[in-house]
Structure formats: structure tokens, C-alpha cells
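Blackboard transcription, Thursday session:
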Amino acid sequence: MLKVTQTKNALLDGATIAEDLYRTPNDFEEFFQNLEKPDEVVAKPRTTFLRAGVLTTVRGSAYMEYGNTKVMAIVAPPHEVVRASARRMNMGSLNCYVNYAAFATGELETVPRREKQLSSMLTKALEPVVCRNEFLNFQLDVRVLIIEDDGCLLSTAINCCGVALVECGISTYDLITASTACIYRDHVFINPNAMVEELLWKHRAGHALPSSSDDTKPIQEHGLLIIASMDTFDQLAQCQQCGYLSPATYTRLLDYTLTINKGMRQLIRQVLLQRVKEQHDLDLREKAQNALEDQRLADIIERLKSQGLSELINPSNIKEDPYTSK
Amino acid sequence: MAFVALSEAEKTFILHGVEENYRCDGRSRKDYRPMELETGLVSNASGSARLRLANTDILVGVKTEIDVPDPLTPEFGKLEFFVDCSANATPEFEGRGGSDLAQELILALQNAYESPLSFDYRTLCLIPGQQCWKLYIDILILECGGNLHDAVSLAAKAALYNTKLPRVTASLLDAGITDLIISDNPYDCTRLEIGTVPILVTVCKIGDYCLVDPSAEEEVCSTVSMVVAISMKNKEAYLSGSHMTGGGSMHRDTMLNSLNLGLSIGEHLNTHLIKMLKQEEERVGPKRPKTVGFLK
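(Written on the board underneath:)
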């Protein structure tokens, strides 16, 4: 008889496969109680892997892992706008397309809506950083592929696109960096993971509503803030906020994200610098190889000049042309 | 939204006007243009409003439908926004030309209304976990004269104020199935509470100064603008969503200043809007004798 052994549904590295964590408001309360909450605010980026120039098929590409969030950005050189009506008078246009990989997320129904939303927000965030006056009547397409979503998706995409733009050689005003912070039930989450973000969207802070008898209870703020900044001149390229925040809390979250952005900027600079060095090394090596090849050819030519063609022409191969002999 | 062609000289003129705190139409930087607002003029909708802000013309209709609430939020009803950019507004909207703009407006509104603190979704609940109202807020842009975000949100708020949900009584049948009985009397209805419903204020940066309610010409001159959603709760202004638009960047302090400017303007705008809506209702009464306006 076939014996069924219950195996734990686990991946090789010990992580369990995500399931529907909660179905009812009560499950959800329990889930929140068990959730790991940060004790103090540490305004630092997550552990990050970033690499520019990962694809050979396009000019500019970058791959980034921000914690578990994995994103790839692709930038092709600008191409001419075909539709005359879509042309703008004094600026080139920028279009961003965000796509989820089929395995990036468990929830498939909302994907098209989220893709659209992310594309529009990403376009808004990148518009200030690209020198769009340099390619009139041209449009620049930026494509982002989301490989895994574990929160901070938009900010990771912005960081990654910033690097890809530089890699492609598009002129930008500055390096762009972005980060996310959110507040939920008086806990500040820096770089919230997918679970925390989902709590904010799905449950929609129903708990924060005062019951009708108790209007004096202070309002429980909740909300998410995404800031993209260009730090050379302390400029903000985008600040996207949702939820319900008082101006004071907004400023507090803003300052956290700006601190993270500074850290992120260091990292991006380092990566780009390394990339340029790598490229330089590659160029040098190529040059050395070319020089070697040139040298070899020069030697041959030299030899031919001094010895005549005799070396190359073997007399046994030459037959008398039957026609000329007649 | 830049459909107006301006020469450099015209732009400079507007810029200097803003610097002098005296804009082309005589306003200061913190003034709105005159508004016309009427409610309840579409007889087929549960609630409607038409707002004319100088040259910007918006018509909003609210339709109602019964739906099943989300299992995680059993006490909440639903809202859905739809923006239609009519080709009458500008020739650019022909075909699918207005879809980007419409998408942007829908996102801004959804974002602002998302929090249950800004719109009490429990008022749309019929039977928790089983039935709720779903409101479709259809926004039609008839003419574009700048400052669409503000106009659209004000009109949406007015339409929600005007919305009358028929009174529903539920009777419990066997096996937990409920039966809804909708009142026959068209005047027997419930209204929505709009005290905390957010409004959007666009703060536009031209030169070194921030101003509100930009006209279409001023929008062309601006480098960046900030859209702030303001919701009033316990007589305090809260942010229920904000983003930057227009393709420029701002310094942190400028951003915070424009945020505060938006908040204070929004607070005024909100109190005036509610006051005017109440006045209109008193004047017209519950039964509107005849429709005035362009939809005769």
C-alpha cells in the first residue's frame, strides 16, 4: 500500500512557501501580534546586491537585489517618436514599463493593475533625473522586470533604473536613490517587507477607526512614504505618500528615508565606479590584444618584404598554365 | 496637461507676475478662481455634481450597486473611480489621447480615498460580510482649463454629498440567507457623511514661488507641482496622499513649504465647500423643482 508521509512544504534553504496568511480579521490580528516588529528605527538600506551591465543584448542594464526583492532594469538608447501627436515641444519623452515575472507574486489577479500603477509612478520619479532636453522628438524606454517582490518595490526599481540609465550612457542630472518607510499601528517600519505592505493594503487599517461612541481617541496614523532623491543639491525627485498621516509624522518619515538614500547613494557610486574600472580594464586588455595582433601582422609583412614572396609560394604548387604555354 | 503653446515672452510675463504676487487674472498666489457648483442635476444617477472652475468643467455622477464585501474588511463598502476625458475638452483627448491623464487622476483619487479614516467605508455596509454598497464615481471632464486635480476632487466630494442611498431593510430568512428590501419611497434615503472626505490641492511651483489653482497657461510655465490630498479630522488637517508631478524636482524645504501651503488652503477650501453645499441644499430643498444648468 502506498504510504503517505507528511512532508513539510519547505524550500532547500529552509524557507517555507508562502501561503494565504490570513483570511478573516481575527486571523489577521493574530498575524500582526506574531509579526516581528522593529524596536528602534535603523535608517539603513537592506543588504544589497547591485550590478550594472548584466545583459549583452541591450546597452544599459542593471540587476539589483534589495533584501529579497529582486529587480532587473533595461534601458535602450532613445528612439524617434513615430506618432507626431505624441511629440512634446521642448522635451523628449520618457516611458517606463514595469512587468512582473510570472512567478514574482502569488496574487495574479491584481498584477495588471499594479503594473500600470508602478509604471506610472516610476515614470514620474525618473522624469526629473533624465536630461530630457537632449533628445527632442525622441523617446526613451525604460523596462523593469520584477523577479521577486518582498516590499520596497518601487524604490528598488528606481535605484536599479538609475544605475541602468548611467550604464546606457543617458545623461542624467544626478544619481537618483529611493527608499520606503511606513508607519502602522505606531510602529515605524523602515524598508517594509511584503508582509507589512500587504497588511497596509489589505486590511486597510480598519482597526484605526474609532467606534462611534469614542471620538476623542487619538487618531492612529498609518501610511507609506516613498521618497526618491538626488542628493547633490538636496532635491527630491518624487515623494509618493499614501495612507493617513499628520504633517509631523510625514516629516519624520521623510527624514528617515533621506538618511537611507544617503547610504544607498554611497553604494551606487561604489558600484558604478567599480563598473567603470572594470570596463577600463577590459578596454586595456583589448587594446593589449589588438597591439599584439598588430605586432604579429607587422612581423609577417616585414619578413615578406625582406625575403620576398618565396616563403609563401611553394614552387611545387605552381603548375604551368596550359593556355599560356600554347 | 500642457496643451497650450506659449512663447518665451509670455512665459516671462507670467513668471514676473507670480514674483510680484499679482497673476494675469488679478489673483494673488493663494487665490482660487471663481467656482460654480451645482448638485443633483443628473436624474439617472444617485448623486451628481457639476463644477466649473473658471474654464475647467467637470461633471460627476455617482451610481450605486450592491456587491459582496472583501472578506478581510467585512464591514467596508467599496468605491470605484472612473475618469473620462471627453474629446470636447481638447482635441488631444481624441481616441485614446486622454487615457494617460485619466489614469493619473484615477490613481490620485484612489490613493486619497484609500484610507478608511478619510472615507468611512462602514457607512456603505448593508450586512457585514455579506452585502455592501459599491459606489461608482464617474467623472467626466468637459473642458480643460487647468488645475484638474482640485476640480475633480471637489466635484467628487460634492457628488458624494448629494448621493442618496435608498433605505434598505434586511430580513433574515432560513439558513442565514438574507433578503434585502429596498424602500419604495424615493425620498426615503440615507446620506453619506462627507466631513472627512479628502480634497486634492495642487501646489504649483513657478520660478521660486509656489501658488495654488494654476490656470492652463501657468501649468505650462511650472517646473513641478505637488498634489496634496487633505482630509479634515477632529478639526485638524491630515495628509491622505500626496505626490509630485510635472517632471521637475524640489528642495526638501520647498516641498515641506508647499505641503503646508496645500494643507492650509485645503482646510479653507473644505470648510467653504461644505458651507456652500449646505446652503445650496437649504435653498433648493429636498425636491428639486426643475433642473437648472446646461442639462435641461
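Lecturer's comment: Residues 247-307 of chain A form the longest helix (61 residues).
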